[in-house]
Amino acid sequence: MILINLPFLTNKHKPWIETEYQGIVMENDNTVLLNPPLFALDKDAPLHYAGEICGFRVHNGPSGSGTVQFEAVVLDRSTGEGLVRSKEPLDCENQREHSFTIQAYDCGEGPDGANSKKSHKATVHVRVNDVNEFSPVFVERRYEASVPEGRLFDRIVRVEALDADCSPQYSQICFYDIITPNVPFAIDNDGNIKNTEPLDSKHQRVHTFWVTAFDCGKNRAQADAQVVVTVKPSCKPGWMGWTKRVEYTPGSGSIPLFPGLHLETCEETVWNIQATVELQTGHIGKGCDRDSYSDRSVRRLCGAVRGEVDLLPPPSPAANWTSALPTLPSSDSSLVFSFNGSNHVAVVPDPVVSALSGDHFTLQLWMRRGGGNIQPATAPTRGNRKEEETIVCSTVRNDDSFSHYSLSVHGCRLSLFYWPDVAAARPVKFLWKLEQVCDSEWHHLSLSVQFPSVTLYVDGVTFDPALIHDNGAIPNPAPRQRMFIGACWGNNSHFYSLFLASDAVSSYHGLLSGVTVRPGSVEPHSVVECLYACREGLDFGDLETLGSGMKVHVNPSQSVLVLEGDDIESFNRAVQQVTYRNSLRFATPGVRPLKLTTSLRCFNEESCLSLKQLEGYLVVLQPDAPQISLSGVGPHLARPAPEFEGPRGVSLFPELRIVCSLSHAVNTAAQGMEALMSDAVAHTLDGCEVQPLGEELNPEREELLVDMDVVRERGLEIINTTAYIAITGAESISVYEDVLRSVRYRLAKGSARFERRFRLSCSEMNGRYTSNELTLEVNFLHSLDNLYHPSHLLASQQQFLHPSHHAGELSGHTLPNPHRNSVVPGAATVIIMVCVGFLVVMVILGVFRIRSIHRRGEGARGGSKDGSGQWDDSALTIIVNPMETYESRMGISADMEGEGEEEEVAESPEDASDDQRIIVKKEGRDGAARRY
């Protein structure tokens, strides 16, 4: 055997690798390409085992995932070449870069790898390269835009697509494309769409087309996007949908004035919008549609305390101090007096002034400075310049002293000069600066004085005064009661010395109406608001629907409404809820001008829009007229004359009925036509009048009586003259029925009449709607015992000498009870008197004929009854019924010529009294006896 001795093999050196590697791997591959390539060197080479590389170990890197996703393998042990690969496919979109460390180790000293050595750790950075696996996706499937016509735009709308790939090469959208042919639009690589030619809304209002997108790997979008471009007509800033004419049907409540109105700003950014809506009603009454009743009636309806004194009443014999003042027509019930600033002055009589004492009172009036067909006053000279215009100037007695006050206007100022005691106290002036005093419009003033407190209400709104103590040298007024309306008294030397209207100074120039003073406690605020309250005006539909930042304000007279906001959409919704309301059942028809003024504030004040004022009008249509029907009376009323001569007379309208109905058109479905339907409605009358027809009442012989307790209880006013009875005041129909049923007609004793005719009519809304005229003919039934007394017959004949009455109206008479004594119908005329005379002659002839027949009968019987056949006619009374013709016409008697025979009956002397009567019976078909 041969033994060979080998040298001792030892592993002296560690393997060596680079300190850092950069690697790339594709998403669809797992082999990592390293730079520099992976090689491990060992200085023990070429020794077997000790110089060979047995493997590589991968350690966690900064990401902590290297050992999980990557591994390193040895390709050649002798050269130390290695390979890094991923254990599973990598996703660039999930993680684009990876980092880990790698370490090489040799094979050691023998096959078992004993004493193997490891190299240092090297860092490996691996980047995952993207693969174009995703296609672009649009952010929205549909894009919409609107542009005004006639312009070219750099960008109308921008479309956008996204790609889910991780690399810039494949994730970026390289270009977009419009795939719909022949459209006037173009798109750039950023997705901006513009028009290539001006668009015309009339030619095509809406353009619809499709676009697609490509990434840089030329992948097309999964789904195309739709683009819709709406072409708007040329934008003109301003209000759109304005309707110049608005119609209102009375009784329809509230209606929107601008239901389709909206503001177009043409994309101008505004931060404040203010719109003012004005409803002009100055030509209607005193500024708006109010209750068309007298001021006194309105005060009572508003619950005011009674006791006011009218300082400017309608001219009448009892109130003649306003007869010289010119008046103007008014659509409401008030009487408007004109003052020309010079000689138009009303001097209130002392008896009226004496009822106005005290330092607690309420002065109310309607005032309008200038205007109203008033002739301007003569221009004052420089030395005679008027400083003030006095409305009311008054000096009244208070127990043992006198107080004085005057209400004046000067420019736009209202002043109250008050002197509580002209002998001791100091005068005080209360001053208000008011635009309402000088705007030439109607305004309601209520001045409540509870000295030293003074409260002024103008159109229902309270105003505080500026208190001024007047320390000037003012002579005391003369201690005498007096009151002027429209001026004050005095001359240059004696301030309050004269009482003649010709010496009046500080004369008022304008219109006044409803000037009243009520002494005592001041008027409550609620009453003042009610007196001024308009029944029509502007309103807002629903305040809860106001958007954030919106404000709405309405003035007290509801003639001006202001909207303010900062958002266009909210503002447009608010404008569409502005309404007109009129609570009157019978609104005053006519035209109410409308104005809309708009103010805009923009961020760029230089280019901010300026909108012109819009003008229109509201037309209140004619309301359905109510029909006031008077019934239940006459047309004839016949009563015995003695009933009219009683202390209470005879009621003229005991069963009067008043019905108010409203007719309106309804559609009949069966025939497709319109018909009128009347509905009974509850109304308030404001006046009724009873008037004798023909000659006026003779106050010495006849009169009309009214239950004054009912009138006073209801607060109505009554004027009772020989020409008419007028009952006025706003009250219900039932109240007027009660009052009119109490109207009675009374005659003086011995006032022989045969008939009297009366006419009854009622009205409401200040005579705007009137009832039918109910005519009643009153007939006085007289007994012939009195009628044909020689002394009475002459008086009766004298009455028949008056102008003739209608003889044909007897058909409607109310006949008296048939069991009464024989009567003569009160509709007797000259014809009846001729008939009466004829009947008297015929009866006298009949009497002689009866007596002659009676005597012949006695002669035939041979005078069997001597003395008993003597007829004592010393006190003969004949009662004749001249109603025979009248009764025949009424159907009461069916007397036919030749169908009956006359029977004469004479009372025996035994049965006859001193006042014997002859009864003539006439039988008809029914055998009934008629008494003559």
Automatic annotation (TrEMBL):
Q: Which domain of life is it from?
A: Eukaryota
Q: What's the main place this protein lives? A: endoplasmic reticulum
Q: Which Gene3D superfamilies match?
A: 2.60.120.200, Cadherins
Pfam families given for it? Cadherin, CLSTN_C
> Which InterPro entries does its entry note?
Cadherin-like_dom, Cadherin-like_sf, CLSTN_C, ConA-like_dom_sf
Renumbered to this chain, region (Disordered) spans 892-932
Please verify whether the record's keywords include Transmembrane helix.
Answer: yes
- Flavoprotein listed as a keyword: no
| Cellular component GO terms, alphabetical | cell surface; endoplasmic reticulum membrane; Golgi membrane; postsynaptic membrane
GO BP of this protein: homophilic cell adhesion via plasma membrane adhesion molecules; positive regulation of synapse assembly; positive regulation of synaptic transmission
Arranged from A to Z, the UniProt key words for this protein are: Calcium, Cell adhesion, Cell membrane, Endoplasmic reticulum, Glycoprotein, Golgi apparatus, Membrane, Postsynaptic cell membrane, Repeat, Signal, Synapse, Transmembrane, Transmembrane helix
PROSITE patterns on file: CADHERIN_2 (PS50268)
**How is this protein situated with respect to the membrane?**
Single-pass type I membrane protein
Quote the subcellular location field of this record: Endoplasmic reticulum membrane; Golgi apparatus membrane; Postsynaptic cell membrane
- For this protein, the parts annotated as crossing the membrane are 823-848
Biased-composition ranges, Basic and acidic residues, are 914-932
Q: Where is the composition biased (Acidic residues)?
A: 896-913
Q: What PANTHER family does the record point to?
A: CALSYNTENIN, CALSYNTENIN-3
According to UniProt, the name of this protein is: Calsyntenin-3
Which organism is this protein's natural source? Takifugu rubripes
